[in-house]
Design brief:
1 helix; six-stranded antiparallel β-barrel; 6 strands; mainly beta
Amino acid sequence: HLYRAHCASPMAAGQPIYSAGSPQQPCGMIANAAPAPAGGHDALAIIQESFAAAGNLQLGDPGGVAIAVAPVGPPSATP
């Protein structure tokens, strides 16, 4: 599933995302990223839904920098 991600550290497309609950293999990947206007960095990420719901996600490797995620909602209808 597609999620918005936020992290204090820079993120780059292709970086793996790990879950503390299953550190043996990535549970997702950064699709694209950019500096956030209010500080830190924002990204779109593809993450397995069960791991995103559980939280405790790390960027790059198990035990890496923590990232926060939120689901991406459907696009707004425009007349």
